[in-house]
DNA sequence: GTAGGGTTAG
């Protein structure tokens, strides 16, 4: 940098230099500065007498390497205003990348118009940038439109579209496109595979994931750090922690993300000791942990009930200079709450330098409900409803707090409030993979083509479960309906539909694997334990928080979740 | 000098 500024000074003091050679030299300096001192590079741009589009593009790219900022968009706006120099395809690619990182949907749409107007609509780099921009803004359909309009699709375009589907959890579409890509004669590469594996991980599609893994080995795409990390994550998220460990141990080189994936994997499986052991190994391997690693470590402590360990890692994290984020605070509150140390949790929240987010209040509220601390719970719920008055989950929590205290009057008041304010509940949704297709079930929704068979089977299961003395846990059903109807509602919970479908379509010893978007309710947890015993089936449920492995009437979470 | 990728509490 010093040399650059010296040259710069030299130019300024030699006024005899021609305008064009000053422009040229300053542009060169800007080029170097963009990688080292972006703000200096920015001031340079405005000192160049006649900056070319090259300098603008270079500066934009420089900003893209920094923390996310709107600078590339602002530069683009200037270009549009001044009409000179004229943007080229590189400009469009950079500004669209900026819009996808932020993300900035409206600005990106404006850029799209400029792309069409300037006749760059047919450039493959610009098209792929547009496609990626829309999917990053979760506008998958708009992304698909760009994709469909492309006349030539290379591996980058296919991967971007597959990744777009994968990120929003449309696994069937992602995998369908992956197959279509191969039929079209385009060879997938490492990046394609990472997206495909991530789609499997997200939906817990273990069989598909295994198939993709074999494909990767066959094609020799298995020597990539990111591919391996994605595989570790996929096996862990699909409930096969042993296989995750196997892939992880075979990796010749592991960075912080790879270690973190393994540690987080152990954590969600409730394997605290393994998670902490792996963290120790990471230290021995001299790989610096990042903030995600610590989220894994702290959540492992929380799930394993290791309070004093958790405190220890917390203070060593502070010493190591990792700035605690909301997630870290959340882990600590969870650590105390799971151990029923409500006062410690509350004290910890008070010491937080940032305002706790709704999730942290909900953690506290759940603990109050479990410990029947109604007054404290009400106070917390008030804070929560003020902070987030439109989230159905908050009303449901408060309502269940009242239900657990048999305070039916207050409970129906909350339910009424919800109705009056027009709050929509996120429906429970579970999925299970059968023969390479992920079937989705939404609570109370019987639109599945095999709904009739599922209903009949559930009827039979219900009778058998009751036959061994199971009493439905009605307090958790929060609709103002009669007890009989409440039981029916319980039997429509999405995971039961998915489990029933698994019973219908597979035979022991095939494991029934279900992924749920919410946490499992107490009654479903009990019923699933009973089903595992009555039907001699292993059932693995990944809920929003962790794994539950039901074998012979017991769950791996030891009823602690 | 351009486009697509892996880990994150409840």
Automatic annotation (TrEMBL):
Keyword Cytoplasm carried by entry: no
InterPro entries: DYW_dom, E2_motif, E_motif, PPR_At4g14850-like_plant, PPR_rpt, TPR-like_helical_dom_sf
PPR repeats: 154-188, 255-289, 290-324
Alphabetically ordered keywords of this record: Repeat
Domain DYW, chain residue ranges per copy: 469-561
Name of one Pfam family that matches: DYW_deaminase
Gene3D superfamilies, per the entry: Tetratricopeptide repeat domain
NCBIfam families named in the record: PPR
Family to which the UniProt record says this protein belongs: Belongs to the PPR family. PCMP-H subfamily.
Protein known as: DYW domain-containing protein
Organism of this sequence: Penstemon smallii
Taxonomic lineage of the native organism: Eukaryota, Viridiplantae, Streptophyta, Embryophyta, Tracheophyta
């Amino acid at each position: 940098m010093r040399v650059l500024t010296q040259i710069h000074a030299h130019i300024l003091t030699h006024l005899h230099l021609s305008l064009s050679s000053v422009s040229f030299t300053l542009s060169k300096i800007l080029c170097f500065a963009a990688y080292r001192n972006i703000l200096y590079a920015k001031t340079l741009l405005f000192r160049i007498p006649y900056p070319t589009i090259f300098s603008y593009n270079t500066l934009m790219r420089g900003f893209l390497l920094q923390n996310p900022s709107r600078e590339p968009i602002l530069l683009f706006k200037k270009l549009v205003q001044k009409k000179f120099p004229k943007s080229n395809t590189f400009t469009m690619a950079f500004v669209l990348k900026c819009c996808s990182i932020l993300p900035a949907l409206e600005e990106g749409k404006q850029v799209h118009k400029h792309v069409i107007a300037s006749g760059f609509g047919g450039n493959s780099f610009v098209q792929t940038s547009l496609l990626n921009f829309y999917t990053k803004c979760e506008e998958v359909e708009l992304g698909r439109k760009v994709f469909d309009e492309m006349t030539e699709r290379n591996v980058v375009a296919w991967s971007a579209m597959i990744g777009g589907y994968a990120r929003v959890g449309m696994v069937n579409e992602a995998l369908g496109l992956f197959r279509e890509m191969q039929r079209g004669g385009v060879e997938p590469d490492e990046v394609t595979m990472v997206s495909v594996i991530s789609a499997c991980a997200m939906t817990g599609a273990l069989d598909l994931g295994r198939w993709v893994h074999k494909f990767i080995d066959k094609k020799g795409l298995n020597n990539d750090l990111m591919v391996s990390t994605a595989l570790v994550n996929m096996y862990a998220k699909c409930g096969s922690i042993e296989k995750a460990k196997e892939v992880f141990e075979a990796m010749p080189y592991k960075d912080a993300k790879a270690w973190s994936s393994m540690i987080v994997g152990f954590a969600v499986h409730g394997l605290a000791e393994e998670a902490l052991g792996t963290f120790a190994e990471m230290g021995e391997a001299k790989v610096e942990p990042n903030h995600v690693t610590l989220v894994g470590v702290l959540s492992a402590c929380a799930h394993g009930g290791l309070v004093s360990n958790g405190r220890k890692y917390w203070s060593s994290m502070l010493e190591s200079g990792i700035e605690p984020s909301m997630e870290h605070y959340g882990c600590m509150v969870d650590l105390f709450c799971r151990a029923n140390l409500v006062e410690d949790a509350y004290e910890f929240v008070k010491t937080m330098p940032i305002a706790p987010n709704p999730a942290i209040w909900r953690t506290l509220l759940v603990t109050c409900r479990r410990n029947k601390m109604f007054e404290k719970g009400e106070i917390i719920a008030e804070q929560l409803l003020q902070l987030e008055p439109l989230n159905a989950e908050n009303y449901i929590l408060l309502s269940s707090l009242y239900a657990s205290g048999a305070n039916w009057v207050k409970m129906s008041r909350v339910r009424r409030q919800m109705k009056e304010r027009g709050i929509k509940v996120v429906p429970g949704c579970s999925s299970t993979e059968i023969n390479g297709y992920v079937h989705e079930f939404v609570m109370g929704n019987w639109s599945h083509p095999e709904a009739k068979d599922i209903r009949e089977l559930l009827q039979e299961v219900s009778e058998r479960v009751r036959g061994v003395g199971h009493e439905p846990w009605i307090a958790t059903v929060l609709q103002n309906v009669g007890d009989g109807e409440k039981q029916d509602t319980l039997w429509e919970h999405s995971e039961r539909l998915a489990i029933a479908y698994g019973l219908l379509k597979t035979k022991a010893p095939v494991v029934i694997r279900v992924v749920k978007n919410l946490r499992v309710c107490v009654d479903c947890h009990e019923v699933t334990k009973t089903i595992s015993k009555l039907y001699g089936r292993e059932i693995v449920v990944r809920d929003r928080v962790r794994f539950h492995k039901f074998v012979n009437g017991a769950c791996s979470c030891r009823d602690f979740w």
